[in-house]
């Protein structure tokens, strides 16, 4: 726990130094500022402490540890002027106890394509006369992300009344390759990284998270070089299963854009009925445009998820997005949380050297091995309710 907290402190101390530039507020690759994840957008992007699906790659990579099954998701975003974005993602548990040996190891990856509409390019002759017009693609971006997370520790808290609480600590990192092209002429590629930390108490339903996104990396199109939009996020959430088949989540986030020196605050709410029908509402404060968001979700047999979200903008700039997710290969939480057994460095006593006569075969029949109970493969487990 102390190591994880110390690492996050070093990141915070290093970020202001990285932000000392002459052109404050100028950043490249605006698509990195577009909130990903349909479920997260419906909750006003207050997702740093909620992250429990594959979209954790874009909010808090530590949330990948909370996956209880493999997920494959496809997202389409439209309405951002004449832009459109497609995202394809995968995330799931790993079959080992993690680097720290505390279990809940997971990995995730995503591929994002963004098209920025078209621009008109007028060509002239040497004498200044009009030569022709050409429509060029304003921008084309490809972003590949690879992430890893695991539980780095747990803290039991015993109460005087006899009860106890458990606090889990998760940490995660991602690496990104960003390839960008402007007006079909200027192209550059860079790399950047994210880091996240999440702590939760299953008994109380409380969780908190922190993440630093787009750390490092610059894009140079011609002679100018601009950094990627570095963001710091912190959030708190409460989630609880109520009487019957009801589940509620309430969350709040604070977001700081380092180079732009802007603060944003987000609030989100999610309600699910019968583990099938979900409703979401959120609001993004301290923004120029209207910050209202809303969304709905449908779950079919805890395998197929269909989500829709809407973000209110100005005029025709309302944003719509759809995500289809398929879950498979559920893993029992008891298996996910299995810790690595300590290695006992002890060798068996050396047996005396026997002669050839002592090792000769005997006429005794070989022992019949015992029958072991047949276990159900993990791939056949039906994924459970994760929210």
Describe this structure in words.
With 387 residues, the protein is mostly beta strands. It has one domain: Beta Barrel (Porin). It contains three helices and 18 strands. It has helices spanning 2-18, 38-42, 333-336, and strands at 70-78, 84-93, 106-115, 118-124, 130-137, 139-158, 164-182, 186-201, 206-215, 218-220, 225-227, 231-241, 246-257, 262-273, 277-285, 292-300, 304-311, 319-328. The strands form three sheets. The chain has a 14-stranded antiparallel beta barrel with strand order 1-2-3-6-7-8-9-12-13-14-15-16-17-18. Strands 4-5 form a two-stranded antiparallel sheet. A two-stranded antiparallel ribbon has the order 10-11. Strand 16 (292-300) and strand 17 (304-311) form a beta hairpin. The longest helix has 17 residues, at 2-18. The model is unreliable at 1-22 and 344-387 (pLDDT under 50).
Can you tag this structure with a few keywords?
Porin; mainly beta; 3 helices; 387 residues; disordered N terminus
Brief overview:
By secondary structure, the chain is mainly beta. The protein has helices at 2-18, 38-42, 333-336, and strands at residues 70-78, 84-93, 106-115, 118-124, 130-137, 139-158, 164-182, 186-201, 206-215, 218-220, 225-227, 231-241, 246-257, 262-273, 277-285, 292-300, 304-311, 319-328. The strands form three sheets. A 14-stranded antiparallel barrel has the order 1-2-3-6-7-8-9-12-13-14-15-16-17-18. The chain has a two-stranded antiparallel sheet with strand order 4-5. A two-stranded antiparallel ribbon has the order 10-11.
């Amino acid at each position: 726990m102390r190591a994880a907290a110390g690492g996050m402190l070093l990141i915070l101390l290093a970020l202001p130094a990285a932000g000392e530039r002459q052109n404050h507020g100028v950043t490249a690759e605006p698509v990195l500022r577009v909130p990903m994840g349909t479920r997260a957008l419906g909750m006003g992007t207050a997702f740093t402490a909620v992250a429990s699906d594959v979209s954790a790659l874009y909010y808090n990579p530590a949330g990948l540890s909370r996956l209880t099954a493999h997920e494959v998701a496809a997202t389409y975003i439209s309405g951002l002027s004449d832009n459109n974005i497609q995202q394809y993602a995968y995330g799931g548990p790993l079959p080992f106890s993690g680097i720290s040996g505390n279990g809940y190891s997971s990995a995730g990856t995503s591929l994002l394509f963004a098209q920025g509409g078209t621009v008109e390019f007028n060509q002239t002759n040497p004498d200044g006369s009009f030569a022709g017009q050409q429509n060029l693609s304003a921008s084309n971006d490809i972003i590949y992300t690879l992430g890893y997370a695991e539980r780095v520790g747990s803290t039991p808290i015993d109460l005087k009344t006899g009860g106890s609480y458990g606090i889990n600590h998760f940490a995660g990192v991602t690496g990104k390759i960003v390839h960008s092209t402007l007006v079909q002429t200027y192209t550059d590629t860079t790399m950047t990284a994210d880091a996240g930390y999440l702590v939760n108490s299953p008994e109380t339903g409380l969780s908190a998270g922190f993440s630093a996104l787009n750390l490092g990396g610059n894009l140079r199109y011609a002679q100018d070089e601009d950094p990627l939009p570095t963001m710091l996020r912190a959030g708190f959430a409460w989630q609880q299963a109520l009487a019957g088949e009801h589940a509620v989540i309430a969350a709040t986030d604070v977001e700081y854009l380092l180079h732009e020196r802007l603060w944003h605050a987000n609030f989100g709410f999610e309600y699910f009925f019968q583990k099938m029908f979900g409703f979401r509402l959120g609001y993004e404060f301290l923004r120029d445009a209207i910050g209202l968001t809303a969304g709905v979700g449908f779950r079919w047999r805890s395998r197929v998820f269909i989500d829709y979200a809407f973000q209110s903008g100005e005029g025709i700039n309302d944003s719509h997005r759809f995500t289809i997710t398929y879950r498979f290969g559920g893993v029992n939480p008891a298996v996910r949380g299995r810790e690595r057994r300590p290695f006992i460095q002890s060798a068996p006593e050396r047996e005396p050297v026997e002669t050839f006569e002592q090792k000769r075969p005997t006429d005794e029949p070989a022992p019949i091995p015992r029958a072991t109970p047949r276990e159900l493969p993990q791939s056949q487990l039906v994924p459970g309710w994760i929210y």
